[in-house]
Write a structure and sequence with these properties.
about 325 residues; homotetramer; globular; Rossmann fold; 7-stranded mixed beta sheet; Dihydrodipicolinate Reductase, domain 2
Chain lengths: ~325, ~325, ~325, ~325
């Protein structure tokens, strides 16, 4: 079978690297084009671990060039930068999986929490790329907004219980992320000495992933929930653990509901014991554990923030958009021990 | 001034070590006796970092010997082992600060979550050693039950808001602890490879510190709250961060209430920004931050699990029991950077 | 093509897990049998990250059963336990890759540093499985002794310079290993609190990998070198960095010699900058850097202690023994970032 | 007794913080003045852990002001910046302990490895502040050049054996440092994700501490040694382990020589087992272990890079310069567990 040619725009960061690592061995995709803002080096100059493995040239990003060589492009760019490229690529009939926040939210919310939107037209037709809720739409999409890492883990944990939740009770989400989620750019808050042997919350009740979570819960359930979201930085490089604290209307069998809800899911695993982040690191799995005390639930969900929270979920979306099996080429072996 | 002689029973563990580190330089206490289950070595054999610093002999624990040389004893023993010693020491007129769980709970709760209690008499007169709620009682006490690490951080965070809480709304506490809290004993769950680059919950909604927290909140407020407590193990050696998610009856000014509540407290610091654990590691401080969204509160409290959560709080209690200034000899300089 | 069936004896440890992770996706091998000392569980009970990925039954190890279903067996057992199995398996015409120390050394050295050897016959025909020195012999071998992790990284770093070394000058090797190299068994020295934020040497100048290194250097060069080997434990889970300090007879161009020596090597990469361990973690690569000051050389070599230092090198050896391309199914994408 | 007033110039970095932590509780010194390049904040703004502990005003550095209020100044500034201040302070009769490299080397070496020297006059009279070799000179000094962290640990390990070393054999020093040694400034090489679960050499055989080590060994011994120095960055915040590989002329009893050499030293501890960095972290100790194989020695020395390698050694020097007991106010209790 002839492989589908794809482009990666934004190859210098961590999610760009993860995209390459997945696509290098993908059975149906072929990396035809890689770009950064600057261009003019090899992939192994950006990521020394690729020396001798993948040394393709990296270009200065150019949508016209992409359209000449690729049918689909992954955008691993900052928000705002992404929408410019997406708009142009779509006009050139290139499918787009956008890993930024640019097409994740409804217009009003986007402009409230980010900035003015410069591609309102495509925004309205973009599909939110969480396969567990939108698989059929993703298959038809030209533009998929790849979910944020926190929303992925949070929504997957809460989804099975949505119909059972007390609508007027707040949802509390205590999330913990590895530092790679904050990107590669040096800063005092990413300095080893700041993070090591430490933990702290940041942007509590004010993080931009909070509206993403509440909007999606509303769209799925038709109900408005108060979502209180607090992220923390962990002294680990990769991985994300999300603790959701929920209140149900009546006594339910949470474990049974959870298992039933995901019985067909390829990339959700239900755990008997509290989940950890090493068992999902390196994979596209979301592991979920639930326990309860009466009508109070504790849901613990774990993902690899760079994979299920970004790059491998993006490739799952690309698989679906191109008519391939959703699990084709998707990593399932964890970085353990 | 002549120093008060004290004993440390249980010197081989982490809290025993921390007791020694504080008491070596204490202005009013003198370590007169150190013991472990075995005895027969020097303190620096148990803890090599003490070489050349503190090399006192370590004896096989014997209450009669303690009574001959010391006025007050710190028990850094496992629960159950502690109550035997405490009973005997008290009968010999030695004051006791017990770092175990043996005298922390009311009888019924203790026997439900731990084991049969063998010293019911002293249990009923033991004082719960959280100075922020019991300072005057501690001053009169012969036996102080030093609080658990999780309850210390949790209660201090929730206390200022107790009168404002919705009584029928559950309290959710998401706690994160360094591994030293689990003790020095080797186990697969304390193995470096298990913990490093990882995080996971343990005993969710079933940890024995949950009844300790809810009992104390009830005793202070006269109200029964549903406490849902989930501890996590962090890949750090020391430190504890506790996130409490609360719901108030009406809109309050949480920050102002917090500041007012602790305006006289020596060892509670109110933070403008989310607290971290490195700023309290090495000290007896509890740092607290609060933020809110309407009637939902996020309280973040940080302590050193081995100090404010055990050994330095024990010495504060001993200070009070002996009529000294509560801050005498108590560490306040953090282990930063 | 029909796959060659293989067995893994000793599946509960870290190297057993890594063998499974490689062989699950191997193009020419199929895991036909997995065993531990006990048996009676699934692979995912031993290693929870395999849930939903690989759940094959695990048996109590039995050589006769192995011979019925497999052509080649990997022994991931402690030394001494390995030689019993190897002997029996070889007599049943099963090829063996032994990851223990049992067949690595000449008899005299083995018995001096380990214990009495109970399979002297096979010892004499075992091939030391470092492909860079023994590729042709490995292709013919029935029994391959997979090298130790430290010797792999040390020998690969020193080998290119062997002919240039001052014979009467000692070689100094300062090695640093992640904790997984010490195995999964709980111990105080593998306790998180012991290792975290720490580093220390162990068995300096007395480690059993020292005679393995010096024996192989002697066999290759025909010269006896004094090898001084000091291993250290690092606060990392996986990875190994070996610094070798060498003295040459005359001024050489170390970089050029190094590049030339490995110009055909599939799994050795020469670096322009000092190597790190994250760029080889997750792969079978050995990355090497050299610099010099006159006739003093500093060689820095990096491997994944569990892969190039154990399991992936074992599969390379199995590839060669079965006539496959040496790189078939061998991991080359690092666990970065 | 009236305390001696001191100034800290350069309070924003890690060594500035450590100076404050020591001097806050010093029995004979009082912090009279703190400065940074900018000034205009409190000490607890620079270092949040000081909130409620030490909130003194921080000024824009000004030598004239220093001279008005302090008898001695600690300079915790980058090299080059330091010499300007030192020169002016000395002319105003303020004693100086300079923590930078500016006065550590002889002129020629300094200008070769750093930059042009702008205070040659004071350079010639500066005393190298390693008390184990220069205690008497330090007592008379107006200007002490506080040693580098690597030279401190290296020289203390090698010193006892200097008279026994083969002069024509190279010395190899493999050093490992926590990241705080590289300072607080954000950079990709100090990014958590770069350092965590990693280790690598930097500036091998080219680090500027190499000439500092060889110069001091030459000055003490009268012999020229070839020093080959390779530093590595460890995934720890603080601590330094230095492995020195030495060759002696004849068979010596290294352990006995080491013990004898330091029998009077207050801040050197000889260890029976390989040293670790946690046992010295938080203290001014240098722990040393030696073992040998014939005439090859392995010396392992451990210090806290920020304390013995900078700030506490600076205070020891200040103690000596002011006629106080060398150990006054110097930390000896390690940051364990």
């Amino acid at each position: 079978m002839k492989k589908v040619k794809v482009a990666i725009i934004g190859a210098s960061g961590y999610t760009g690297l993860e995209l390459m690592k997945i696509l290098i061995n993908h059975p149906f995709f072929e990396i035809a084009y890689i770009a950064t803002t600057e261009g003019g080096m090899k992939a192994s100059d950006l990521h020394p671990s690729l020396l001798g493995v993948f040394e393709q040239d990296v270009y200065k990003a150019d949508a016209t060039q992409v359209a000449k060589v690729a049918e689909l492009a992954f955008l691993a760019l900052p928000h705002k930068a992404a929408m410019g490229f997406a708009k142009e690529l779509l006009s050139l009939h290139v499918k787009v999986v956008d890993l930024s926040a640019d097409y994740r939210l409804e217009l009003e919310a986007y402009e409230k929490f980010y900035c003015e939107h410069e591609d309102k037209e495509n925004l309205s037709s973009a599909v939110y790329g969480l396969p567990e809720i939108n698989k059929e739409k993703i298959k038809q999409a030209k533009l998929v907004a790849n979910p944020g890492c926190y929303p992925t883990a949070s929504i997957l944990g809460i989804l099975p219980f949505l119909n059972y939740l007390k609508v007027d009770a707040p949802i509390f989400i205590d999330a913990k992320s590895g530092v790679s989620g904050a990107g590669k750019k040096p800063s005092l808050s990413a300095h080893f000495v700041t993070i090591n042997e430490n933990i702290f919350a940041y942007n509590p009740l004010m993080h931009r992933h909070e509206p993403e979570i509440s909007e999606k819960l509303r769209l799925v359930s038709g109900q408005e929930f108060e979502v209180n979201f607090v992220p923390h930085l962990l002294p680990v490089s990769r991985g994300m653990l999300v603790s959701s604290y929920l209140q149900t209307n009546e006594l339910i069998n949470a474990k049974a509901i959870l298992e039933d809800f995901y019985k067909e899911a390829k990339f959700v695993r239900i755990r008997e014991n509290p989940v950890d982040i090493k068992s999902t690191a390196g994979t596209n799995f979301c592991d979920i554990f639930v326990t309860q005390k009466g009508k109070s639930l504790f849901v613990s969900s774990s993902i690899d923030n760079l994979l299920r929270g970004a790059s491998s979920q993006a490739v799952v979306n690309a698989n679906l958009m191109c008519g391939f099996e959703e699990s084709a080429g998707i990593p399932i072996l964890a970085y353990v021990p």
